[in-house]
Each structure stands twice: as C-alpha cells, then as structure tokens.
UniProtKB/TrEMBL annotation:
Residues 27-207 form the Bacterial sugar transferase domain. It is an enzyme of class 2 (transferase). One of its GO terms (molecular function) is phosphotransferase activity, for other substituted phosphate groups. Belongs to the bacterial sugar transferase family. Signal peptide: none annotated. This is Bacterial sugar transferase. The chain crosses the membrane at residues 29-53. Its EC number is 2.4.1.-. InterPro entries: Bact_transf. Keywords: Glycosyltransferase, Membrane, Transferase, Transmembrane, Transmembrane helix.
Amino acid sequence: MQQPQLNGIKTHSRLERKYGFYELYVKRLMDIICSLAAIIVFSWLYLIIAVLVRVKLGSPVLFKQPRPGKIDPKTGREKIFFMYKFRSMSNERDENGNLLPDDIRLGKFGRALRATSLDELPEAFNILKGDMSIIGPRPQLVRDMVFMTDEQRMRHTAKPGLSGLAQTRGRNALSWDAKLATDLEYIENISFLGDVKIIINTVKQVFFKERGIEGGTVDEVDITDDLGDYLLKVGRVSKKEYDAKQAEARELLGV
C-alpha cells in the first residue's frame, strides 16, 4: 500500500499529524505576544550584548544563517529562512586566508554567550516574524536536513523553536538519533501545558545550570558534528552518498 503523503513528505501511520486547537489558533498568538514583550523589556540587554560583541569580535554584530523552517503546504518543501543570532565566533584565519576551525574561533566570550543562550536573543525577531515559535524542534542546518529520513523530516511539520523538548534532555549532549527522535515525540504531543513545561525547564537550564532535566546526559559540547559528517563517520552513508547530499544542500541554498 502506498504511504500517505503530508505536504510532500512521506509519513508513517504512527506519525500522521493531527493539529489541535492550541497549535492551530493559540500558539501563534502566544508567540507574537511573548516575542514582542521580550524585545521591548530586554531592549537594554540587546544593546549591551551588541556593544560587547562589536568590541570583542568586531562586525557584523549579528550572525545570520539559512535554516529549514516549516513545510509550506503549497510547495511541499521546507521554507528556508534566515535565523539571526549574536555572533559568538571570531573571523580568525590562517596564513592562507581560510577560517580557523570552529573550536578555535569560539573563544571564552563566545562560549559564555552560548552557555547562557544570550546569543539566541535575536531569534525573538524570527518568532515575531513567524518563521519560528517559542517552542518547537530546534532549526538545524540545510545540510543537516538533506541527510534526514522522510520520517525525521516530519519534524518540519511544526515551526522550529527557540527551545524545544530535546533542549531539556541534554541539548548538544544528545546523539543525533536521540535528538531527532525527541523532535518527533514533541510534534506528536504538542500542547499548551507541554510547552509551558519546556519553557520552565529551559529557564532552569539557563539560570540554574541544570542539564538533562528530562532525563538526558550532562556531558554537553560546544561544537558538534553536522548530521552528514556523523553519518559518514559511523558508516551509515557512503562517501558518494555524502557528496551527493552535500551537493543537494548547496543547490537548495543556491551556492
């Protein structure tokens, strides 16, 4: 029997998406109110961090990167949008003009921004615009998306979030498989109380340094492998498949 289709993505019977009243009518209203309030109330903090980033890392102050968003029902494809963050890496280069590895360019200041999640404050504008939500699967890279299975790409039937269920279970400490499985678990059970619980646990993680609140591990890392690099490293894709997927990602980005 042919698998059912949802917005151009193959689905599995256990993952057929049901959009409840909260997700359809309440979640967006909450996103608008909360993101607008955060921008207004914390405008002073935005200014302070912008000045610090400019002094310590130079310009530009903001880092923007294309990320896959929610699947557009008109095209059946993920909408690609620019996600904004405060810069956390320098532009240090080697003698040949090539950027140094990420772990070198992410200095003490950048690590502090990431540890406190202050680098993600500009995403409030993405939420206000409608590309993101307060809670949802975290937006991954386009080059990660192309390596996801049809089942894993079901995560894109919900808007990506500033925080999400996977972030309360260990953030970067989770393996790729666990992270994507957690995203699917979230979209199957979206609710107001569930989102409130994730917000509370996220605040605990940021301000009280509690890691893995939802049962995850505690050994977080600052830099993680891209999904494609991970799959190649563990032998789950061949070099030929890897190169083809990377080319697909570049085509989607028009580079």
